[in-house]
Amino acid sequence: MNESQFALRVRQALNQGLHLDARVAARLRAAREQALAHQRLEAAAGLALASNALGRLGGARGLSLRVLLPLLVLAVAFATTYAWQQQQRAAELEELDAQLLSSDLPIDAYLDQGFAAWLKRRASQQP
Amino acid sequence: MAQAARLAAALAAALLLTAAPAGAAPEPDRRWQQLSAEQREILAPLEAEWDRLEPVQRVKWIGVAKRYPKMTPVGQKRVQSNMKKWAKLTPAQRKQARENYRRISKVPPEKRGDLRQQWDEYQSLPPPKKPAPAK
Description:
The structure holds 2 protein chains of 2 kinds.
Chain A: H1 3-16, H2 22-57, H3 59-102, H4 107-111, H5 115-125
Helix pairs in contact in A: 2-3
Chain B: H1 2-19, H2 37-42, H3 55-67, H4 73-88, H5 91-106, H6 109-112, H7 115-124
């Protein structure tokens, strides 16, 4: 039986109509309902799963959190680094200034534009 | 949400860890009245302008005061006499002075001789013999 013959037979059968007795009809209906109920259950579970996953990613609120949190962390990291650098700088200045202020030259010597160069040149002329 | 909270907690912990070593170093900024008696004694030359100094400056001076007891008596005396003048300099002048201090420190001690003596000699030079200001 090829395809077109099969189609012909199906058409004849459909045209004749289906005469089922009540018992078979009832069993078919029950099976159909059972299948439908099963399908609805699966669909519901699938939907719940999907909405759950969305919820975990957060929807609108969670999405903004997911964007804001890294930004916040980045900002805090920058601020921490900046503060740390400032502290390092302050510590360096503190050490340098303490040395400078307790050195045996007056501040004027360090403010003089030419003294350091003069001293350097003089030292390089030493044997 | 639970995941986000966990992530946040982990990041906060990481930040705390990186911030911890920095927390050890700095002295807090203080008004004059908040300084200890010892600090006030050391920093006395700055009393008049203390509260007008920039916070960074105050923190630095508190640090200098912390180093003060470890200095030689001569060094302590010098710090005392230089403090007021130093605080009155402009930031540019302080920068210049620090730069010159570094340059002078780089000259080997056996070649630069007694600095005080060199400075006196330099000052006694007649003006034309002084080199042109460094660029």
